[in-house]
Write a structure and sequence with these properties.
Elements (H helix, E strand, L loop, with lengths): L8 E4 L5 H12 L3 E6 L2 H14 L5 E5 L5 H14 L5 E4 L14 H29 L2 E6 L12 H21 L4 E8 L21 H13 L8 E4 L2
Parallel strand pairs: 1-2, 1-4, 2-3, 4-5, 5-6, 6-7
Length: 236
Amino acid sequence: MEKNTKNKNCLLTGATGGLGKEISKQLIKQGYNIFLTSTNKKSLEKLKSQLNVMNNQSKIFYESGNLNKTNDIDRIIQKCRKNFSSIDILINCAGVFTVKSLQKTSLRDFEENFNVNIRAPFILSKEFSKDMIRKKWGRIINIGSSSSYSGFKDTSIYCSSKHAILGFSRSLHSELKSKNIRTIMISPGSVKTPMGKKVKNQKFEEFIDPVEVSKILLTCLNLNKNMVIDEVRLNR
């Protein structure tokens, strides 16, 4: 189990989503300092209030922004830098899930999926891995999907972007592990979240509980000896 978690600073994207909320709660329970991002400022304010009730002297900051926009990403980075001297843990949880046939999918849909699902993790990993390299310790956790390993009808650009984040994670794992930076890809099947309700022809009540996914993530995060977990697939 990781020690001195109060000295570890974490940046969590997609914090107000169904999975992001549960991850933030697990982080607070274990004493991590967290910087939350999401598109909705009011939702972030509400989440911070909820976390404050659970808080054991952890530092909590937030900044709203759209990861589809470069200016918003830059502003999030600046605000994060203002509040934390460094980021030890980056959790790329934000995602866009477009459900459309190929013919109905627009170039704007394509760009949004790739901007949020892979471009933003690239920018944030490039920026904050500098802190991790300097401190000789770091964790980058990317939330993938069963779509990282398969292709499904009417989700071509989503599946493509999730294949991309898998390749990105594998490459970072190989590049950064010698610097004591672990890159972990967690890929659940359909999860009981608002995003999960967009999945067609499946029973929502049989989907994975986001609480369980968040607990698996924290378990992986807290492993700090010689064993390395680089990919986790969570199926139903």
